[in-house]
Recover the amino acids of this structure.
């Protein structure tokens, strides 16, 4: 039997995405998980520690997170799109992730960095910041540039 085609709860996902992007809300992240063959909004919140706790070893999920970058001179909000495939996820579900990811990226289409993780150690704010720094832009404040 063929696995069902994945669908999105598009309106709810778009709303959560815009909530994370908005300067008018405190929401810093949203997590999207599978409910059967549908990707739904699983949760959203404010602190990175909470974000880290959203992902399980047997789960597939997506995360969208806003991270404040820069320094005292120049603060910028940057966004990361995260694909999570837990260690216990099976081969078929793993294989479907690239298609499923393409679907959700139609909605979550604005981010500086795309990351993939599968173990908790990879859900590290410093790793996220390093990825954002590598992806772009000047680092002011130190007077030293390393290109």
């Amino acid at each position: 039997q063929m696995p069902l085609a994945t669908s999105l709860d598009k309106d709810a996902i778009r709303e959560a995405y815009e909530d994370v992007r908005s300067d008018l809300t405190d929401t810093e992240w949203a997590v999207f998980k599978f409910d059967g063959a549908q990707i739904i909004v699983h949760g959203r919140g404010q602190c990175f520690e909470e974000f880290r706790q959203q992902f399980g070893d047997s789960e597939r999920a997506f995360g969208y997170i806003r991270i404040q970058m820069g320094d005292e001179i120049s603060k910028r909000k940057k966004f990361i799109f995260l694909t999570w495939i837990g260690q216990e996820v099976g081969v078929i579900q793993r294989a479907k992730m690239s298609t499923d990811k393409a679907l959700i990226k139609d909605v979550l289409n604005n981010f500086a960095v795309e990351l993939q993780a599968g173990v908790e150690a990879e859900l590290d704010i410093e790793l996220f910041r390093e990825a954002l720094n590598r992806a772009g832009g000047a680092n002011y404040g130190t007077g030293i540039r390393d290109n």
